[in-house]
Design a protein that fits this description.
Blueprint (H helix, E strand, L loop, with lengths): L15 H29 L7 H12 L2 H15 L3 H29 L5 H27 L5 H33 L7 E6 L2 E6 L3 E7 L2 E6 L2 E5 L3 H7 L5 E5 L2 E4 L3 E6 L5 E5 L4 E4 L1 H13 L1
Antiparallel strand pairs: 1-2, 3-4, 3-7, 4-5, 6-7, 8-9, 9-10
Helix pairs in contact: 1-2, 1-3, 3-4, 3-5, 4-5, 6-7
Length: 296
């Protein structure tokens, strides 16, 4: 899967530099404290002269790799935080890969220094690093995740959409014009989209849902994911009226694809589509959706 098929969300709780700073702060403090503990252990228990540099080298060998891999885990958690239902397997696979890569570093060092064999070293570090992955998630959840409540998110919907449309209208207009010129059917019957490094035309009548993704929109058509460079608000205006409904600032779905609407205690909700996709419903748009379903 290409990088373009998995764009980062357009809004992040904190800039990426905060991921790095948080990793350096937390792991730096942990390494310093553990180094001090090892030094005290040498003096009190082993009754040997303190070897501060040796203690630091030992601790850094075991845990230093997480200074690099933790920001990657933070970025993945942020990327998939709004799409747990759809991409939980991808997130789990990524975190598992990070854990194994992290464990491979001390294992390789043990092999090079003849400290212990690979199997023993892996059995030592792998359970520890699995636990560390859980701690990294807790740090992200407490310090880096987006804490805005659903109500606060709903209040900013219209403002964000207006700014997005105003800033990209000039760029998006030629794109929409190009789509109309290329398509042989009436306007908005087809869309020119990207799939990896290629472009293709898809039928609007086959679209299940559309989600905002930075400067692009992610379009799902019969289970296939495509990208189109246009704001969600602009594309919504180009789609056939009455066939699609906005359920969230970042999500637009075809009315006929809605299979189930679930309520949540916060006042928001979840929409399950016939194709299996699950999308969040903001409190503001949930009311409009319920009125629409009542009329139908």
């Amino acid at each position: 899967m290409s990088a373009r098929a998995l764009p980062m969300p357009r809004q992040m709780a904190w800039p990426l530099s905060s991921d790095i700073k948080t990793s350096l702060l937390c792991w730096g403090a942990f390494i310093v404290l553990l180094t001090c503990y090892c030094t005290v252990y040498q003096i009190v228990v082993d009754r040997t002269p303190a070897n501060l540099s040796g203690s630091f080298s030992h601790v850094f060998k075991n845990w230093g790799i997480w200074l690099l891999t933790t920001p990657a885990v933070f970025a993945a958690l942020r990327k998939y935080s709004s799409k747990w239902h759809e991409r939980a397997v991808e997130l789990a696979a990524f975190v598992t890969l990070i854990v194994f890569i992290s464990a491979a570093v001390p294992v390789a060092i043990d092999l090079l220094t003849n400290a212990r064999d690979a199997a023993t070293s892996l059995m030592i570090f792998l359970p520890r690093y699995v636990a560390v992955a859980g701690v990294v998630y807790l740090v992200w959840y407490v310090f880096l995740r987006d804490r805005r409540s659903p109500a606060e998110t709903d209040q900013t919907d219209e403002v964000v959409d207006a700014v997005e449309v105003a800033s990209s209208r000039v760029e998006a207009a030629p794109r929409v014009a190009a789509v109309r010129e290329i398509a042989s059917e009436p306007p908005a019957a087809t869309l020119l989209v990207s799939k990896g490094a290629h472009q293709c035309l898809i039928q609007v009548s086959r679209i299940e849902c559309v989600s905002a993704a930075g400067n692009y929109v992610e379009i799902i058509e019969r289970g296939q994911r495509y990208l189109m460079r246009a704001p969600l608000k602009q594309l919504e205006a180009e789609l056939p009226p009455g066939q699609f409904i906005r359920i969230h600032r970042s999500h637009l779905v075809r009315r006929d694809e809605i299979e189930l609407i679930k309520n949540q205690p916060s006042g928001s909700g979840i929409v399950q589509l016939r194709g299996g996709h699950v999308l969040p419903v903001s409190k503001k748009h949930k009311q409009a959706l319920q009125r629409l379903r009542a009329v139908e």
